[in-house]
Amino acid sequence: MKIPADHGKTWMVWLLFVGFWLTFMIVFRSQPFNDPGSLWHVRVGSWIFDNGTFPRTDPFTWSYEGKFWIPQQWGAECAMALGHQFGGYDALLVLMGVLIAGMAAWIGRRFLETGLHPLPTAAIISLGMATAGFHFYLRPHLATIVLMAVVMDWLVDLDRRRVGVNHLILLIPLCVFWTNVHGGVLGGIVTFGIAIVGWAIVRSRTWHEIGILWLILLACLLATLMNPFGFDMHRTWFRIVGSTAMKENVPEHFPLSLLRSDGQAVVGFGLFYVFMLAGTLPKRPRVTWLIPLVWLGLSITSIRHGPLFVVVALVALADMLPETRWFRLLKENGDTFVGPPSIILMGWRGWVPISTTPTWAAS
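Below the sequence we write its predicted C-alpha cells.
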C-alpha cells in the first residue's frame, strides 16, 4: 500500500516536541533532583575526570571503604559531569527535557502517520509520560527508558517488514554504547530475544532470517564485553539485580503496589493497553504487540520497570491503533479525529530507517 509523504505535518511533530519540553520544564523542574543519585552520578563523573582513571573502590562511602566497587554507569556519569561543568544543573535539566520531549515527539510521529489527529495523539502520549513520570530522575536510567523505545521502534519496523533483518545489526553498536551508560542494556537484549522467539513460534520469519537474528543477538551479548571493566561489569549488574537488600530498602526496586500512586498509574495504563489490544481481536496479535505485556508483568515484580513498560507500550499502540475496532469505528463515522494515513518526513529522508509506508500499512 503506497502512502504519500506529507511534509506539511512535520510542524506537528515539532509542535509536540516543544509542547512536551515546556510541560516537562514546568511540571518536572524539581523532581529530577529529588533522588540523591542525581548528584552522586555527577560527582562520580567529576572524580573520573579529576583523577584520569576509574576507581576500583568506592571513594565516597565510608562504610564501603576498601571494598571492590566500579562506576558501572561511567559513560552517563562522565556526560553528566561535562554538562554540569558547562552550565550547572540548569543545563542538565534542559538536556533531560530535550531527551524526554524528543522521545515523546518521535513516538507521537508514529501516531500521526496513522491519520490520528494531533489532539488525541498528544493525549495518549501525555498519559504515557504522566504514568512514567514517577521515574523521571536525572540518572543514567533515563537513557535506558529512551533506548528501550528505540529498540521497540526497530522491532516493530522489522515485524512489519519495513526494514530487513540486517537492519538489526545496528543493535550491536547500540549495545556497546548502552553497556557503558546503564545496565538496562540487558533489558533491551532480552526484549530482542523475546521477539525472536515469538517470530519463530508463529513462523512469521524464515529459518534463515531467524538464524541471522540469533547471530545478531549473540553479537549484542558479546558487545557488552566492550567496557573498561570486562566481566566485572556483568558481575555488578547481576549483584544489583539479585540483591534482596535493594528490593527491601530501595523504593524503586519495590514490587508494584496498588497502595502507591506509581503502582496505580502503571496498572491504569496497563488496563488501557489491554483494552486497546482487545480491540484488535479476533485477529491474531503481532508478536511485538505482546512484548509490552511481558514488561507489564516485570513491573509487578519491580516498579522500576514501569517506565519501560510504558515506552514499549506506546510504540506498540501506535502500530496496532489502525487495526483496532475503535479506530475503524471512528473512521467509518467520519470522525474528524481520524484522517488519511501519511508519511511524515523529517530531516534527511525522515531520519533512518527510511520507509515508504507507514508502520501500520505494511503487510
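The two ends are 8 Å apart (CA to CA).
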